[in-house]
Design brief:
758 residues, 7-stranded mixed beta sheet, 22 helices, globular
Length: 758
């Protein structure tokens, strides 16, 4: 069977041998190369772009400021009354709002000339107070970042059950403040765009996770019809959410290409990625929790402040982290009383957007750290608290107190499996060894994946479809080609989508070729590759389209062979009567007779969100002298529904967990008081390498979801969600001092030890 087969990834050989095609690999001898003039300050009035010297550089073909392009701003649509979305100019106009904001586009004969000209630009800016602290930004006397608008972009509250009464009857309570920093997604390939105008049309190659959304934005802002705009995503060197947005640079490059009638190319460098691509995760959360004498969780009372940065990313807007974090604060627990107020502040920093596990990393950090705090207050082991409050299998389907419709699961089994494999009881008894402090930590979580249109409608995110589409064609050689609205971004899509299509068609996966996402392939519309939606959403469209195409082939073959459809089977490039291979017709013959009949497009809107879950457990060793952390063991017990390809699932979980460990121990942005990014290079923004990572011990539960056509759930983000909490819990156990902020650095550990950690 195609589903469940441990197949090697078909996309890997060209990528590993240098034969892949990324945007920067696409050669156009007529293309000009682009560099952006960016704001050197975080907040100020833009009096003049200062481009005269740049325009005079030999080899510079064109320079565009805001007034030269005359484009409307990007405005992510949102219908939620608690949300205010400021417009983002494609190039800064009148004002700059973060250091790194694009002010002008320079197109030159090569990148060297473009960058030399960029360095000669001298924008004249009247500096204003930079707001980098979100609490300062929402204070009454703070200057407005967007004139006429409050710096509070989101203010939403929810109060369910009887929170105050639950605290009154609680035997134990705990209150903590937790902080998470800004982080960057750090794909190997940063953003890249090639725009080619030709005969009144424009083709844009973009390293994007959402090509159909990019086409829509280009049409709206450039005033073009859909037939005039084509967007193609070739090989993409990672996305992790940062490429799920439409950026001003993409719009500016396309607009300038149309104005010039010339191809334009831009490949973002690492410094630009760190400073000007969307960042994520900066929040401060004050949480109170109540628990019964028996160790059952009773109530959560939470106040959140999210740092959005200067703008809302398109199309997600300004409420992405606010909504995702607050909606998952109860986690996998049976909590019946819940209060949350969430605010989002505009600041003079890079806009915050999606990054793998958006919001769920933080909500999990909150509920798992507060469980540990309650364990400390009560003397009840934290594993036991989890046991007493985790939802049981017979309680599903279950709607959480925050309104999340959990589909199915066995949360207690995931916990027990992780505890068993890590040897939890034995690890808790270990003493300090040879100048090292030993600690064990656990984390249980659940996450929403494959969100449908109703979810985005509920959030007010009117610019996100929530569904995806697929197009499958039978080819004259008897193979099949597949296009979807969820591009490959390194997650093994060419293999897994081929397996899904093969299962629906009733053929072997090697008969299916998954093509680059291309808005010209068919009349497809859809959301894109983010929020772990490819299998649940695009997979549903592929299953439906494949089933229809199979029916058409069998119907035509039955007529040709004068046989019953039920007696036919597809074997390679032929369809024959079962048991009589000689009585056959080729797929190519059927296609030649009526090509259009064997091209099928379908769209799938998942009936509801699906919820994978896991428990992570780890053992850490802390060097008392240096504060260095070593991860001795790392166990994962997870359920992503029906597994399409175990090899790819393991790779996704391993890679995601590696990113989560980076966020737990290494990664965090730092802006100074003037709004300048201190962590502006990989000398200062640290990411994990092989020496920082343990061997992952992965165990699957595999309970198929009852609400998706194939039982699939998402898997791409899950591993990122747990490490911050699991490692913080383990380090708190090892050092005897709480760690409620990440990343947890050696300096923090040494300070905790000096201040009396056990």
């Amino acid at each position: 069977m195609a589903i469940g087969a441990r197949l090697l990834r078909v996309e890997d050989r060209p990528l590993l041998t240098g034969a892949g095609t990324y945007v920067d690999d696409i050669e156009r001898t007529d293309a000009l190369e682009v560099a952006f003039v960016r704001s050197p300050v975080a907040h100020g009035r833009l009096l003049d772009a200062g481009l005269d010297e740049a325009r005079a550089v030999p080899g510079v073909e064109a320079v565009f400021a805001n007034e030269d392009l005359g484009l409307p701003p990007l405005v992510p649509p949102n219908t939620n009354p608690g949300v205010t979305v400021p417009p983002q100019p494609v190039l800064a106009k009148d004002k700059v709002r973060f250091a790194g904001e694009p002010i002008a586009l320079i197109a030159a004969r090569d990148r060297y000339v473009a960058e030399d000209a960029r360095d000669l630009a001298l924008p004249e800016i009247e500096e204003l107070e930079p707001l980098t602290d979100p609490w300062r930004a929402i204070s009454d006397d703070a200057p407005s970042i967007h004139e006429g608008q409050s710096n509070v972009l989101v203010d939403i509250a929810r109060d369910e059950g009887e929170v105050d009464a639950a605290f009154e009857r609680a035997a134990f309570t705990a209150e903590r403040t937790l902080n998470t920093p800004r982080q960057s997604a750090m794909p190997i390939e940063p953003r890249a765009v090639l725009a080619v105008p030709e005969d009144g049309r424009i083709t844009v190659w973009s390293s994007s996770q959402a090509p159909h959304k990019l086409r829509q934005a280009l049409c709206e802002l450039l005033g073009l019809d859909e037939d005039s705009v084509r967007v193609v995503t070739p090989d993409v060197g990672g996305g992790f959410g940062v490429k799920a947005h439409v950026y001003p640079e993409e719009i500016a490059i396309a607009a300038a290409a149309v104005r010039l009638g010339r191809a334009l190319k831009w490949a973002e460098d690492r410094a630009e990625h760190l400073a000007a691509s969307s960042q994520a995760r900066k929040q401060e959360i004050k949480v109170r929790a109540a628990m019964s004498e028996e160790g059952e969780l009773l109530a959560l009372d939470v106040e959140m402040l999210c740092d959005q940065g200067a703008y809302g990313v398109y199309p997600h807007g300004v409420s992405l982290e606010a909504m995702t974090t607050s909606g998952m604060l109860p986690g996998p627990y049976r909590i019946r009383n819940f209060r949350v107020r969430v605010r989002t502040a505009a600041t003079n920093t890079s806009p915050e957007g999606a990054y793998r596990g958006v919001g769920f990393v933080i909500s999990t950090f909150v509920h798992e750290r507060i469980v540990e705090a309650l364990a400390s207050e009560s003397g009840i082991d934290s594993a036991e608290i989890r046991r007493r409050s985790l939802l049981a299998p017979d309680e599903f389907p279950y709607v959480s107190i925050a309104g999340q419709p959990y589909d199915n699961g066995d949360y207690p089994r995931a916990l027990e499996l992780a505890l068993e494999e890590i040897g939890y009881d034995e690890q808790r008894k270990r003493a300090n060894e040879d100048g090292r402090r030993i600690g064990v930590g656990i984390c249980s979580y659940v996450e929403p994946t494959g969100m449908n249109s109703k979810v985005f409608e509920m959030r007010g995110m009117a610019g996100i479809e929530g569904y995806d589409s697929a197009h499958i064609s039978a080819e004259p050689d008897g193979t099949f080609r597949v296009w979807t609205t969820t591009p490959a971004i390194g997650q093994g899509t060419a293999t897994t989508i081929a397996q899904i299509a093969a299962a629906a068609l009733g053929v072997e996966p090697d008969r299916v070729r998954v093509e680059y996402s291309d808005t010209a392939a068919a009349e497809l519309r859809g959301t894109g590759s983010f929020a772990s939606r490819s299998a649940a959403s695009a997979g549903g469209a592929v299953t439906s389209a494949g089933g229809t195409l199979r029916e058409r082939l069998l119907q035509a073959a039955a007529e040709s062979l004068e046989a019953d459809e039920g007696d036919l089977e597809i074997d390679g490039d032929r369809i024959h009567v079962a048991g009589s291979p000689s009585a056959s017709v080729t797929i190519g013959e059927l296609v030649a007779a009526d090509p259009e009949r064997y091209r099928v497009t379908d769209t799938f809107d998942p009936p509801q969100t699906v919820y994978p879950y896991a428990t992570h457990a780890c053992v850490v060793a802390v060097d008392e002298e240096t504060g260095e952390v070593g991860i001795e063991r790392y166990v994962i017990a997870e359920d992503c529904g029906r597994v399409i390809n175990p090899l790819i699932v393991e790779g996704q979980v391993h890679g995601a967990t590696a990113q989560g460990i980076g966020g737990a121990l290494l990664e965090g942005h730092d802006y100074d008081e003037q709004g300048q990014l201190r962590t502006a290079s990989l000398m200062d923004y640290l990411v994990p390498g092989a020496t920082e990572l343990p061997r992952f011990e992965l165990h699957h539960l595999e309970l198929p979801s009852p609400v998706t056509p194939n039982g699939f759930k998402g898997v791409g983000e899950g591993g990122t969600i747990a490490p911050a909490a699991a490692i913080a819990n383990a380090l708190s156990n090892a050092v005897g001092s709480e760690f409620n902020s990440v990343p947890i650095t050696p300096e923090m550990i040494k300070r905790a030890l000096a201040e009396g950690g056990r």
